[in-house]
Amino acid sequence: MHCPNCGNNNSRVVDSRPTEDGSIRRRRECENCNYRFTTFERIEETPILVVKKNGDREEFNSKKVLAGVVRSAEKRPVNMESMTSLVSRVETSVRGLGENEVSSTAIGEFVMNELKDLDEIAYIRFASVYRQFRDMDDFMSELKKVMKD
Question: What molecular function does GO assign, one term (predicted)?
């Protein structure tokens, strides 16, 4: 690890801790100038391909999932920490399937299951886009399911 202060290549680990997002936070000290700095390490995971409804494939992107959740929870009393935690749980569920390719439908279901517990209005908003409600009957049917639970 190169020291950001002097560029020396030798440093020693002073402290190491896991973080909430699964990475490892390390405090390091340069053996040349004694400058202390922090690094974060993350386990490199195999990429997961998302198979979209039209058959296209693209790499799983948690930022896209987060963007959809943020959009559905707009103007709702849901904080960003809850939404990022939700996305993290969804990614864990997707990786837990043990597959290299996962359908966008499965990912959408994971998101909806998490949103239902977080905020019912955000859930309905997400479901209306995800399930492509065609008319008021589709909307009311989903709303009745939520109200029944």
Answer: ATP binding
